[in-house]
Every structure is written in C-alpha cells, then in structure tokens.
Amino acid sequence: MKAKILVNKNFIIDEIDRRIYGSFIEHLGRAVYGGIYDPSHPSADELGFRKDVLELIKKLNVPIIRYPGGNFVSGYNWEDGTGDRAKRPKKIDLAWNSIETNEVGVDEFQEWIKRANSELMMAVNLGTRGPDDARNLVEYCNGDTDTYYANLRRKNGFDKPFSIKTWCLGNEMDGKHQMGHKTASEYGRCAAEAGRLMKWVDPSIELVACGSMFFHIPTFGEWEWTVLDEAYDVVDYISLHAYYGNRSGNTAEYLSKSLAMDEFIKGVANICDSVKAKKHSSKTVNLSFDEWNVWFRTMGEVSKERVEAPHILEEIYNFEDALLVGSMLITLQNNCDRVKMACLAQLVNVIAPIMTETGGDVWVQTIFYPFLYASNYGNGITLRQIKTCDSYKVGSMNVPYLDSSVIYNEEAGEIVLFAVNRSLDSEIELDFVAQDFASSELIEHIELYCDDLKAINDKSTERVAAEKVKISENGTVTLKKHSWNMLRFKI
Ligand code: AHR
After folding, report:
1. What does each C-alpha distance from 193 to 85, 208, 230, 391 come to in angstroms?
2. Model pTM above 0.90
3. Catalytic residues
4. I need a surface site. Which of 14, 42, 151, 215 has the fewest CB within 10 A?
5. Ligand 1: residues within 6 Å at CB?
6. How far is the CA of 316 from the centre of ligand 1 (A)?
7. CA distances (Å), 309 to each of 150, 163, 422, 478, in order?
C-alpha cells in the first residue's frame, strides 16, 4: 500500500515540552524495593540504589518522574520517609495491601533523581490528609526560611532546598478505590485550598489537579468541570490517566486505541477552555497525562498477603504492546500544544519498560524501545501533516493504517518522523515531502519489528529490539507490516 505525508516548515502544532517523556515510580510492588533500590545488589551505590538500573533509566532520558504515588500517596505520611532511617516506622499500605518499610522516602528519592538526571514531580496526600500536611511538605522540600520544616530538612542533612517545581494535588480522587475518595466539589475545594497554601509557601511551584481516573467513568467531564470551576485560578494543569489493553485478542482493534487517547486529550482540553471562558480568565490550564501505558493483564492485582515488596503488577509486554506504546507517544507528540507533561506508568518492574530480579539481572521489555527513541529524538517542533493513506474500520471509526508524527529539530538540523504501520499484512511505501526546507535527506531508519506479535523479552532472550534498516539508494521508504519506525532526515 502507498501513503504520503506532506509537511511545511511554517505549519506547526507547537514546541514539544520535553516533560512529555516523563515517567512514574510509585511505592508499589517492586518498583522501589527490589527495583531502583536494592542495597544488597552488587551494583548498589552507597545509598542502596542499583547503578545498573540507573544506567538504563539514563538511556531513556526521562526528564521528570512522578513520586511516590499513585494510589499509595493517598494514605502516605511523608514524614515517615525522612530523617534517621533506623527510626523509620513500618506501616501497612492499604492501597496495595502490603508493608511499607519507609527505608526510601523523599530524602533518598531526591538524591536518586539527581543520579537519574531527572526532576521530581511530587504528589501530596489529599486522601487521608489535606492542606496542612501538603504545605508542610512544600516547606520541607523547598523552604529557605529559619522555620520548623525547613530546619527539619537541614537537620536531616540537606542544607540546600530540593527545589521541587511540579506538584500533584492528590491522585485519582474520583475513584472509590482511593483512600479518602471525594466528590468532585469536595475535591475541588480541597485542591483549591491545599494549592493556595502550597503556593503561598513557595509561589514558584506549579500544580496539577486530578482529572478523572479514566475517560469512560460515568463522572468524566462533570468531574473535570466541577474541579476546575473550584480550582481554576490556583492550578496549572489537570491530569489524565489511561491504560489500554488487548482484552478481546483483536490486534487491529487494539492498535486503534491511541485514537481513544487522542479523543480523551481533546475532550479535556475543551473542558479546560470552557471553564476558562466561563470565568473570563486569561489563563490557560494545560494537560498533564501523568499515567499512561498498556496495562490489562495484571490490572486489579493487590498483594494477597501483607508483605514487603510483593510481586504485583509485573506486566510482561509483547511486541504488539510496543506498537501501541509507539502510537501513544505519537499521540502525545501530536497534542503537544496542550499536553505539557506525561508520565509513562511506570518505570521499573511495575507495568514498566525495565525489569529486575531482586538481587539479580536487569533487562528491558519491548516497550522500552519506542520510548527510548521518542525521548531521545522526538524533540523540537511538531509539524502539522497532510496525510494520504488507506484506513480500516473498527466499529464506525476509520482507523488510518499509518500513524505518524513529524518533528522539526532546528538545533540538530533534522526532521524526525515517527511512524507505526498498523496493517497486519501489508507494508507501506511512504512518500515523505517536507516543504520549505532547502532539502531533506534520509540519514537513519530505525525499526521495531517482529513476525510474532506476541513475542516478549526476558532476562535471557531479547526477541524484540530496535534495529537499523539499510537505507535504499533510490530513497524509497518502506514501513513493514505491523512495525514501529523512526526516520531521521538531515535538512
Ligand atoms: O499505576 C498504577 C496505578 O494506576 C496507580 O497507583 C493509580 O493512580 C492508577 O490507578
């Protein structure tokens, strides 16, 4: 099949905010304990963090990491994770029915985040706690005054403030699964009040309000509208969460799910703007897609016994999952005018691109690859595309076989095209035209392809890995059936 993409240098969507390549580490299962932190591991550093895991995270070039939850944060007392580690309390975590040792808390995580070359996106507990603890945490992290919480941080060995810029006002507060679940107006009031106090402590911070836990929840829309009606002036972003999966076993339908993500983004942006109009506000609230991934096999798991670091949510990803992750990244890039932050949920062991054995090996899952290339090469300005290609039907929806984003990176002097061929049986011969650029020459074609859509990687075999494709002399570009691709054009 043939397809054509035409872009023009002057027809731009927006500049990509690098924070769309963020991720997420929750105190959940073996994400922290046995994942990033494993003091008895041969590669552990002096704080107990695994250097081999850090090396892979650095390759992914993740600019921001959300922490410490997720559902966990809604029952968390941040003070438990500070100060003398020998004196920290062990507690029950009701979110995942496990035991939290508090060996790692904000004191250690902010050290780890520097080692990961990243930045912290901190979530506060608006479930079992509220504005008071939230503003105290901001003072502990960012305060430079001679006052109790800033002094507590100094006493704990950190003279310089952690300077955390981005803060999430709770997590999925619309869900009944959440500790301290609230109605939209209860949460809206609480978020507005907590946010006001937090910004009074440190006016330089940015705040993310909780949107709906997913698009198809009956309260979607009403929730966003009510929360923003209460908190519009205080918050800077509203969150979106979405997890997709091939529950029906129909791959063609599965690969169309990034269209639902696109619809979700457009819907939330419209709600933000309708509240803006109602309030006659000059401020625009943007979107933080701070949980997204494929997740369905281990959904609903909690630990059967209350133990430390249980093996839960250890989703094993196959090749078709990587294709959808590739398409979801393309969707984020194409919506970069409104989505300013996004977090692949999560980063290590728990619904993650990186897997470890506690005390043992580390390896990468299939979904590692599209993220690796998007984060490292998908930087600059997203261009609008005029696209001609065939499509297929999923219900009444037309799904284009070719999913793509085109990014102009002026600094690197290149155009980068990310493309997923959703067709399960035909390759695509692509004609790419870049108008108003003096010339464009294809210099690299990276492909993620496997004959077997269900192939997985494990610690001993990597069946799915990105590879360089030989560039044809006559310049034709062929995208294999069910493949993910990155094409770099020198300009
Ligand atoms: O990422 C796993 C869980 O998914 C998070 O804790 C929660 O916010 C969401 O439901």
Report:
1. 32, 13, 10, 48
2. yes
3. 172, 291
4. 42
5. 26, 69-71, 171-172, 213, 291, 345-346
6. 17
7. 31, 29, 38, 45
